[in-house]
Specification:
14 helices, disordered N terminus, trehalase activity, GH15-like, about 625 residues, 15-stranded antiparallel β-sheet, Beta-galactosidase, Chain A, domain 5, 2 domains, Glycosyltransferase, 6hp_glycosidase-like_sf, alpha+beta, binds the ligand OC[C@H]1O[C@H](O[C@H]2O[C@H](CO)[C@@H](O)[C@H](O)[C@H]2O)[C@H](O)[C@@H](O)[C@@H]1O
């Protein structure tokens, strides 16, 4: 593989980076896998058949690891890009010297009922309707445009170039094979094989259409013709709109970002199991050119349960139903507690390895697959799960019988471990510590478990769990607060940590508590860069990593919620508006934001950022409506 750089993390100053900025990618999803599209019309990331499979288009991580372009010849910058409203279908408009072209891209999912049958109160159609098909249509709006198609898969994360064979007599379909996988490209253009790629070029005039589709479905089913291809794009639009129609999105000036966040989150869901990935990518760097590169294509208990919390507020409850099944089915560890993360199919082992042949995004190495965090002890996980079960129980007015053993085992696990150090919510790879946010989430675990026991009428367990919750609370307020009355990162430091903002989100402390106000203000003043929140200062924290990182978007959104909770509504609104201004051109967020360069950093799009956006908007909107939270 080419490195495209002259040393780790160092690009020649003469040549601009060949990697588009992370925030310029568009995201498509069929709820089995996701694709990232660069502004020039190239699919730079696609793993098939599902999120955690090896990539077939991996240019995101190495410019020679495979790509698939459809767009005008000789022009790289579109005039505009937007999602078809209410969908995860992309529309790109190009203006060339001789004409205008519209390209639509969809990872096909559907069928959905016709628009007039949308009923927000009924369950949507069975939504495992992915076609395992990427459809791309082109329409010349005016003049003439030379359309170029280049499809160059490289299988196994850039390892195995495709071997192409034409299928059928007309050179309108070809199969690419490599690493035990075959995908089929079909089009109305005339294809030519050039080694590991196929290419086509065709002049379209006003009103003319072209299409292509890539299939990895069983039987490699492809559209019959252009009408069918366009109908599949429309089907996909209907699918997303049908899904979105179930949501109760407040009629507020933030309606658009709320909708986009809901669509992004749903697009991170793996429908066969109800699990969500933290992000569809691996190894987009948290430090430019650096080594903080992780694989996020797994389901973290924390990320998913926080996601469900956000979706509940939008009345999107079916996702919680599915995920409850998932957690009831996954295999716990030997002591009965849940792992902190699983594969999207419930797999327990996520062994981390490096792919040394890949250059990494803009030279950021290593590229990792798997995630060693899976075997860590992170004591917040029980609270995240039990909070989610309580919320779900209240919303659905029933506690499914099969979840009760899980409630008991997680409450017992939290009771057993809350006094012990752990790796914390940030998954530090240094020494285990007595993290305040981990203990706070253990309090959440026992507090929510006690409430669930009351709902179930379990008179024995409810008081025991409530008593343990009180013990944890006392312990935190004794050891977890500095002499300035601020919640600290862990018991042996006075350093700040944005995860202590969860004291507001999970109502560990009431809005008028002085310690909460002191913590929120300290974080706003001392843990920010240009007003955006760091999760902690890397020079004050033993996280087992090197190098600085950007501000963490979830932490900035948490600060919005916390400011609203302590009654600082105008400060909350101001920060929310700033955060909305730094969204990507298509309304998406990565994990981090570099407050100095304005660039997004880390995996993209990131569920954490979008779920916290919804939570922050909720805090402000509720406060605006009622004058209280
Ligand atoms: O930066 C260190 C850690 O980064 C990842 O963890 C982060 O992402 C997780 C998924 O969104 C999230 O649950 C966690 O709170 C974040 O700190 C990475 O997965 C870890 O391996 C890594 O140590």
């Amino acid at each position: 593989m080419s490195t495209g750089h002259d040393g780790p993390g160092r690009f020649s100053s003469a040549a601009p980076s060949p990697f588009p900025p992370i925030e310029e990618y568009a995201y498509l999803s069929d709820c089995h896998t996701g694709a990232l599209l660069a502004p020039d019309g190239s699919v730079d990331w696609l793993c098939v058949p599902r999120f955690d499979a090896p990539s077939i288009f991996g240019s995101l991580l190495d410019r020679e690891a495979g790509t698939f372009r459809l767009g005008p010849d000789n022009i790289d910058h579109p005039t505009s890009r937007h999602y078809t409203p209410g969908t995860n279908v992309l529309e790109t408009t190009w203006r060339t010297k001789s004409g205008w072209l519209l390209v639509r891209d969809a990872l096909v999912i559907g069928p959905a009922p016709p628009d007039d049958e949308i009923n927000p109160h009924t369950r949507p159609p069975v939504d495992d309707d992915a076609h395992h098909l990427l459809v791309r249509t082109a329409h010349c709006l005016e003049g003439t445009v030379a359309v170029q198609l280049i499809c160059e898969p490289v299988f196994g994360y850039g390892h195995t170039p495709a071997e192409w064979t034409m299928t059928g007599p007309q050179r309108h379909a070809a199969d690419a094979t490599g690493a035990g996988l075959t995908v089929r490209l079909a089009t109305d253009l005339t294809l030519g094989i050039e080694g590991g790629r196929v290419r086509a070029r065709h002049l379209l005039s006003t009103g003319e259409h072209a299409w292509c589709a890539l299939s990895w479905a069983a039987g490699l089913a492809v559209p019959a013709d252009g009408d069918h291809a366009r109908a599949l794009v429309d089907t996909t639009c209907r699918y997303w709109r049908t899904w979105l129609a179930q949501a109760r999105i407040p009629d507020h000036r933030w309606r658009d970002p709320l909708q986009r966040s809901a669509l992004a989150i749903k697009g991170l869901t793996y429908v066969p199991t109800g699990a969500t990935v933290a992000a569809p990518t691996t190894s987009l760097p948290e430090t430019p050119g650096g080594a903080r590169n992780w694989d996020y294509r797994y389901t973290w208990m924390r990320d998913t349960t926080f996601t469900l919390r956000a979706l509940h507020w939008l009345d999107l409850d079916w996702e919680a139903e599915e995920f409850m099944q998932f957690i009831a089915d996954v295999q716990p560890t030997e002591d009965g507690s849940l792992q902190i993360m699983y594969g999207i199919d419930g797999r327990r082992e996520l062994t981390e390895t490096e792919l040394p042949d890949l250059s990494g995004y803009a030279g950021a190495r290593p590229v990792r697959v798997g995630n060693a965090a899976y075997s860590q002890r992170q004591n917040d996980v029980y609270g995240a799960v039990l909070d989610s079960i309580l919320l779900h129980t209240r919303r659905s007015q029933r506690l499914p019988r099969r979840l009760w053993p899980l409630v008991v085992s997680q409450a017992e696990a939290a009771t057993r471990i809350w006094t012990q150090p752990d790796q914390g919510i940030w998954e530090a790879r240094g020494e285990p510590r007595h993290y305040v946010s981990s203990k706070l989430m253990c309090w959440v675990a026992l507090d929510r478990a006690a409430k669930l026991a009351v709902l179930r009428g379990d008179a024995d367990r409810a008081p025991t769990w409530a008593h343990t919750a009180e013990q944890i609370r006392d312990d935190i307020l004794t050891h977890g607060v500095t002499t300035d009355g601020v919640l600290r990162q862990h018991y042996d430091t006075d350093a700040l940590d944005a995860s202590t903002l969860l004291a507001a989100n999970f109502r560990f402390l009431p809005g008028d508590d002085k310690r909460l106000a002191a913590t929120v203000n300290a974080i706003a003043e001392d843990l920010t860069e240009n007003g955006f929140v760091l999760r902690y200062r890397t020079d004050q924290t033993d996280d087992g990593q090197h190098g600085k990182e950007g501000t963490f978007l979830i932490c900035s959104f948490w600060l919005v919620s916390a400011l609203a909770h302590i009654g600082e509504l105008q400060r909350a609104r101001d920060l929310m508006e700033r955060l909305l201004r730094v969204k990507s051109p298509l309304g998406l967020y990565a994990e981090e934001y570099d407050a100095h360069t304005g660039r997004h950093l880390g995996n993209f799009p990131q569920a954490f950022s979008h779920l916290a956006l919804i939570g922050a908007a909720e805090s402000i909107i509720l406060a605006e409506r009622t004058g209280e939270l």
